Amino acid sequence: MGTLAVVVPAATGFRSLELATVAAIAPFVLVAALGVTVIGQDSRLFDLFARPGDYEDGKLYGLAAFSLAAAGLALLAVRFSLPVPVFVGVVVIVAYGNLGQRLAYTVRSDEVVATAGFVLVGFVAGVAGQVLGTQIQAAVGEGAAAVDLPLVLFLAASGAFVAALLRSVLFERDDPLVMLTVGLLLWLFFELDPSVTTQRVVIALAVTVLLGYLSYALDTASLPGMLTGVLLSFLTIVLGGFGWFAMLITFFGLGGLSTKYRYEEKLERGIAEENEGARGSGNVLANSIVALFAVVAAAASPSHIAVNPLLFFYAFAGAVAAAMTDTFSSEFGGLYDNPRLITTLRPVEPGTDGGVTWQGVAAGAVGAGIIAGIAALTQDIGTVGGSVILVCGLVGMTVDSLLGATVEGSVVGNQGVNMLATLAAALTGAGVVLAVGLL
């Protein structure tokens, strides 16, 4: 059914926009109608396409929803500015990714192997779909035949990672949501028109997949957490650079190991992370989402955003430094007795939100110093720039503790506090460099 996407680039050849629209969405609407009206539960086609919930309903609602989501994206491609080859790539990433996942399950009943099958087959299908879509459009006289291979590889890899991540946290019948999300995200990346090279994309794929596997094998991240880290690392290398990635992977690596440090003792004290210290996607995103926005914004500047990209670098580095300080201060500081509430300095029980120890503050400062040092070594920012990033980390750690002592649990959760702390650090970095004229 996903292969029907190749009809859309051919439909763009019609001179009438209305006729092109009908030709593009009609096959998907027809499939949806057949799924809920004609194909009965006693049909072999029903067993072929049915999702688990479809057996309860007696209708192929999963297939219908998939087809209608594809029709919606097809409408965006024909009537609006969603690139048609990107549309084809998105649909086949999800469709063939699901096929790859099923094939992997027949080889080995393992969640990681199945996800690897989804990513691999989805990536290959995404590349082929974009190339085929470009060629078909060119054949009907509606586009150039030249293929921007680095961009095609980047979009296919990003789409496969995002789709696999969403599939790992959603139900199988949520494929329409997966498809629409991936479609809008790749549309954004296409419009950014990042300056990427084939070599960088290939290196980014190799490095991030390897590190993602290691993080899962060492139990420092759950499967969704690993996929989130892989996606963030891949985007950071391609859109930011290896210096940016060095900071991010240092946080992921040392942060994960610090969580495992004396884990049994932390468990006894009631301060250990859940899932044996394996961080999930929510935790990874809470600590990294601000940095991700900074990377994307840097790629969009100054062509799309009239701002010096260096401003977003400081925001990125400040957010990562804050995440590192918070992790170090809590994971190491929580092992010591006599913490005090940051707002009143009164003694509190270990693990109390907002409780700090001098050992934790020192550990957090070391974490900020590590990120600042990497930034100074990999970027031309000098000692002053490194000092700004160090300050950002300390600001983030302080904001995290203040929020923990005041609003955590009643207004926002732990992940919300982490995100707000990294946001405060990012804004501090951007604000300081503007104030002192480092740009």
From TrEMBL:
Cited Pfam families: DUF92
Keywords: Membrane, Transmembrane, Transmembrane helix
Main location: membrane
Record membrane topology: Multi-pass membrane protein
Top-rank taxon, per record: Archaea
The keyword Protein biosynthesis belongs to this UniProt entry's keyword annotation: no
Transmembrane spans: 20-39, 60-78, 84-100, 112-131, 151-170, 201-218, 230-254, 284-300, 356-377, 384-407, 419-438
GO CC terms: membrane
Location relative to the cell: Membrane
Family from the record: Belongs to the TMEM19 family.
Protein name from the UniProt record: TIGR00297 family protein
